[in-house]
Amino acid sequence: MVKIAFNSALAQKAPGKDGESLMAEKDPEAASVYATESSTGRCLLTLLGLAFILTGLIVGGACVYRYFTPKKLYHGAMHFSEIDNDLVPMDVEAREPYYLPRIDEELEIHESVAIINVPVPRFGEGDPAYILHDFRRKLTAYLDLSLRACFVIPLNTSVVMPPQDLMDLFMQLMSGSYKTYLVHEDLVVTERIDDLGPLGYYIFNLCDGKDTYRMQRRSEILGIQKRSVEDCFTIRHFENKFVTDTKICKA
Ligand SMILES: *[C@@H]1O[C@H](CO)[C@@H](O)[C@H](O)[C@H]1NC(C)=O
């Protein structure tokens, strides 16, 4: 394309003063036809060139944008009271939120999957983690970043808001601090999972290469065998309007 434009520009310039005056003397009409044709051609070429440059800019811009802008993450924080749930709502209102412990989270949504990044808490206990809720597979996976291990349990839809509602919640959190209460959850590791394939693409991606275990709610386990020494850790997070303290014990 560049070459053509260059050639036609040359072709126009080349006849120069002599060529043009010669032609004009020989056949004035032909010369004027040549002139209008060439100016239309030049115009088209210029437009084409501009279109090319514009396309390049747009495509290039899109690439740069995609490459350099991080994925869309929603950030949210909640202050919570550690006092027993039943007493809390009134009590929390009465207190300044800034003296309460705080949980920060980052939320990423892919279709029917919500991925929550829980950083190391600045106050209080809890491991940093990635928590993945797969609404299509109806599974939740906790990747504990301190232990570098994954823990999988059926998704509890009465606790975890669906992706659209989660996004709305994070939108609300952006506009101010939120005071809430803490709910405890007691989970027990039941077995090791060797084949991650059936857990779906997203959990596979999250947990591939890490020790992965299945869990159950302690209340669901028949004949609770409370061991004297249990290996437990907690992850504090929210995917609703309250903070959940998830205690996971390796039986
Ligand atoms: C979901 O979570 C709630 C609150 O922790 C609990 O009462 C309920 O049993 C859970 N449901 C399932 C199916 O685990």
TrEMBL record:
<feature type="domain" description="BRICHOS">
    <location>
        <begin position="123"/>
        <end position="215"/>
    </location>
</feature>
<keyword id="KW-0472">Membrane</keyword>
<dbReference type="GO" id="GO:0005886">
    <property type="term" value="C:plasma membrane"/>
</dbReference>
<keyword id="KW-0735">Signal-anchor</keyword>
<keyword id="KW-1133">Transmembrane helix</keyword>
<dbReference type="GO" id="GO:0005794">
    <property type="term" value="C:Golgi apparatus"/>
</dbReference>
<comment type="similarity">
    <text>Belongs to the ITM2 family.</text>
</comment>
<protein>
    <recommendedName>
        <fullName>Integral membrane protein 2</fullName>
    </recommendedName>
</protein>
<dbReference type="GO" id="GO:0070062">
    <property type="term" value="C:extracellular exosome"/>
</dbReference>
<dbReference type="InterPro" id="IPR040145">
    <property type="entry name" value="ITM2"/>
</dbReference>
<keyword id="KW-0812">Transmembrane</keyword>
<keyword id="KW-1003">Cell membrane</keyword>
<dbReference type="InterPro" id="IPR007084">
    <property type="entry name" value="BRICHOS_dom"/>
</dbReference>
<dbReference type="GO" id="GO:0001540">
    <property type="term" value="F:amyloid-beta binding"/>
</dbReference>
<keyword id="KW-0325">Glycoprotein</keyword>
<dbReference type="GO" id="GO:0042985">
    <property type="term" value="P:negative regulation of amyloid precursor protein biosynthetic process"/>
</dbReference>
<dbReference type="Pfam" id="PF04089">
    <property type="entry name" value="BRICHOS"/>
</dbReference>
<keyword id="KW-1015">Disulfide bond</keyword>
<feature type="transmembrane region" description="Helical">
    <location>
        <begin position="44"/>
        <end position="68"/>
    </location>
</feature>
